[in-house]
Amino acid sequence: QVQLVESGGGLVQPGGSLTLSCQASGFTVEYYSIAWFRQAPGKEREGVSCFSNSDLSTYYPGSVRGRFTISRANATNTMYLRMNSLRPEDTAVYYCAALGGVILSAQEMCVMELDEYDYWGQGTQVTVSS
Length: 130
What we know:
The protein is mainly beta. The chain is built from 1 helix and 11 strands. It is 4% helix and 45% strand.
């Protein structure tokens, strides 16, 4: 059974850091392009970190560039999102996603809709507040 399960969300103070994990099962994440999306209350879902397996590019929109880092650990079939210098506007539900069998840059991936991906998780809440 294919699954992506996020963890690591929670409440953090502004300026703090958090690392989200996404455990994959039923497929090998090493062979997929990967991404993290988020959806804040009243806002559209957006791609915030994308890595393309086809051209090895990474993309971050300006709102998170320099603060967020996407990575994966092939040995444990896990994806990660490291978030530093968190701001109240980073408050959202965060989703991991995987996409295979396409040739797309990371920037192209980040403007796709989450449900265009092959697999995605149920989301984890991140709240940045003092």
